[in-house]
Amino acid sequence: MAVTVTLRHVTRNVSETLQRLKSVLFRRFKLVIVLRLQEGSLENAE
User: Fold this and answer.
1) What is the pLDDT of residues 8-23, one digit of tens each?
2) How many CA atoms lie within 13 A of 23 on its CB side?
3) pTM over the 0.70 mark
4) CB pairs under 8 A, 24+ apart, for 33-39?
């Protein structure tokens, strides 16, 4: 019994960690995209 409980706990921790990583990566990715778009629009404006 204890083994399955531990496995479930580990699985939950892993999924939470993955969600956190995903959100952080998504935020960084969005920042990069915004910066690229701004650079592109500046080049087009000239």
Assistant:
1) 999 999 999 999 999 9
2) 5
3) no
4) none
Residue type, 7: L
Reading the block at residue 13, the tokens are 């921790």
Token digits for 43?
């080049």
Tokens 């580990």 belong to 10
At 13, which amino acid appears? N
Q: Calculate the alpha carbon distances from 46 to 2, 15, 36 in Å.
A: 66, 47, 16
Cα–Cα–Cα angle for 36, 37, 43, rounded to 5 degrees: 90
